[in-house]
Model the fold of this input.
Amino acid sequence: MISRDLTEFIKTRIQKWTSQQRENTLLVLAAKSRLGYSTVRRLAAGGEPEFQSFMQLASVLLTPEETVQAVEQYFPDARRSIDRPFQFMQSTKGDPIYNKDCLLIIALCCPNNGIEVSELERIVGLKSMSSVNFLLDSEILVLDSGRLKLSSDYIFDTRPDNILKWMGYIIDLFDRGRKDEKGSFTTVRISGLNEKGIDRLHQIMAQAEQAIDEALGDKGLQGDISIGLGMISTPMKPKI
Done:
């Protein structure tokens, strides 16, 4: 039986988050947490969450320290499963994607069948294999019958500063020699919008992100081609 205190806790945190900024809508929260909009709306109304739904919401609403405390209180049986990931994320030194080599290695290991160690070494070079050892030691990667795969239970810290850094790595790794091939896409727009236009743009991007997540999660579309992508928008008038 889920504690009523948990449903109130989640409902209050969602209300706090949506009140912080105009663009913090339930639709945006659904996109950021990788949950369905109907699920987020149900939880915002006081519905009961499963552990996985809670963890996905926590990645947006809570700090790693707050998440650990909440799991200790509301999901004590699951406490051990988050010990390593959140202890790992609390350390700046332990950032799992601390350089573009790590990002490339993680991307190449993302396909369900992973990648052979020898093939990975051929692609990234011998000097980058130290990053492989770091990712193995941190249990982000696992070695299975000579193939490296992404650990299924690792939870990445998707706060904005990390995402912006990772997007920078993707840009650095962009293969300009293949810019016209399928899978490569570049576009940029700069314009002036009013508040209504900003709200509409955020809604479009949130819907696009949700559609991308659905495509990435479709088992019929999954394969062995690693793809890096990201979306970004920002007010162009710096704060003074």
About this structure: Confidence is low (pLDDT under 50) at residues 80-94. The radius of gyration is 19 Å. DSSP finds eleven helices and three strands in the chain. The beta strands are 115-116, 141-144, 147-150.
